[in-house]
Each structure stands twice: as structure tokens, then as C-alpha cells.
């Protein structure tokens, strides 16, 4: 069976239709599987785990493992090279993984992060993940829309060989794994007590998005992805590595605490210097002395009862003004 990329005309349109159908089927099968987890995950955990299970990076790995990428027909040599590089990287990682082991002291989060290795590598070509969804769509159509047939394919290609990698992501009713974006934010706060991390994006004319992460105007990472989500995740992974190896350098960049203290001081000085006293006999307010300040608040009352639903401006026009009360403000209360 050959899968024709969207750039190859009419057959490409069929590929897209099958991909659209397969995406919906995959989402249903993933949620069905996750819903049966015991103890049951809370809604937030279900949403996060589902996002990891159906992301393009992971689906590209599935396509590579079952040899599906070999059947993609296209005329884009750039895509051919990108698929080749990502395939070599995935196969190389899986080969080396069996010969290495994690340190005994590794945390649960680090274990989970290592198992989801596709989040920390090169961005997968979108077509490499799309082809798996199109295959599910084709099986669904050929089986006369029998969900059980697609369920069997999903179990054989995803659950059996890959599910063990996801079991370390959750404990009890909640997730214990943070995606790279959340991990970067948590790491920044724990090390520097600062989360001044900014993301900017550049969109290519021929597809692809470049995400740039800066910390106090210093570039931490810049990565290309098939879309904004993939680019952001890839850049966050790179940024986490950079932060862990340049802690001292980055710590000196943050001046948020100094700025906040300075702004707080300026606000207090401004407040103390701006106490005014409204005199009912004068048109303009006059400043009070520093010992005490008396603020006479004048506001309008209407001689006639106004309809609460009436126009606010009309009620003001009909109002008569009279001083009702005054409030004493001492500098000590500032």
C-alpha cells in the first residue's frame, strides 16, 4: 500500500481525507484506553496523557517502527531528507537504549522524561505522523467502519510496544510528569525564583514554525517544528538542557527582585506625596500637610428617585451636589 502526500494531486486529497478520519478514530481509541486506567485519572491527567499519546512526534516514531514511512510517495526532496534524518535518530536511540540504564537515584519525573525520548530530539516531519493516522482511517473504511478492527490495529502498533513508556507518567489520580514547557517554567522558578520566559514564533512561507525562547532578553533555545506546538516543545527541551548547564550565568541575569523593590518604593513615595484635600468652597483640590490629611468626599444625590435601569448620564444631570461625609487619612496608614 502506498500513501500519497498532499503534494501529489488527487491522491493527496485522498490521503488527507483518510488522515482526517484516522485522527478522529485515534482520539477515540486513545481516550477509551485511558478511561479504563485504574485507579482512574482525574480530567486534567486524562487530557495531558492523551496529548502525549496522540502527538505527531510519537506517531512518527510508531510509523518508523512498523516501517510505514517507506510507503510514502512524494516529490519533496527536503521532506525525504528530513524523514531520513529523523528515522536514523529514532533507530539509533532505540538501539542505544537497550545497552544503557538510568542511575538508581533518578527521579520519577526524569525516568518519565527519558522514556518519552521523542520529546527531546529533532522535530519529526509532520507527514511521518500523519501517515499513521491515514492508515487507521483506511482500515476503518475497508472494514466497513468496524471500530473493533481499528482497535486491534491500535493495540498491536501502539499499546503493546509503546504503552510501558507512558505508565511512568502518572501516579494515583494525577500526572507526575511535566511536559517540557511546564518543566522549563518549574525549573526556572526553582533555580532563580523567576519565570520571565518569553516565546516568539516565526512562520515559514513553505510550512514549518521556528520557536525562540528568551530569558531576560537572552536566547536560550531556537528550534524548528512542523507547527507552533511542536516547535515550542522542542525549544523548551533544548532550553531545559541549557538552563541546567548554565545556572550561574543565568542567575546573574535576573534583576526582577530589585525592580519590584524599586517599583514598590516609588509607589509608596508617590502615594504619600499625592494626598490631597478637597475643599467644598474651592474649585480645585489643595495639598494637605504631612501630619494629617482630610479628604472630603463630595458626591451627588438626586432629588428625585431614579430608575436603576435609566441612563447614568441622565441621573447625573438631574442631581444636586451636597457634601455628605469626610474621611481622615493619616500618613501612618499608608
From TrEMBL:
For biological process, the GO terms are: siRNA processing
Return the GO cellular component terms, semicolon-separated.
cytoplasm; nucleus
| Region feature Disordered, mapped onto this chain | 283-334
Polar residues: which segments have biased composition? 299-308
On whether Hydrolase is a keyword of this UniProt record, the answer is yes
Q: Which Gene3D superfamilies match?
A: Ribonuclease III domain
Tell me which CDD domains the record gives.
RIBOc
Q: List UniProt keywords, sorted A-Z.
A: Hydrolase
Instruction: Write the signal peptide boundaries.
Output: none
Q: Which SMART domains match?
A: RIBOc (SM00535)
Q: Name one GO molecular function term.
A: ribonuclease III activity
Q: What is this protein called?
A: RNase III domain-containing protein
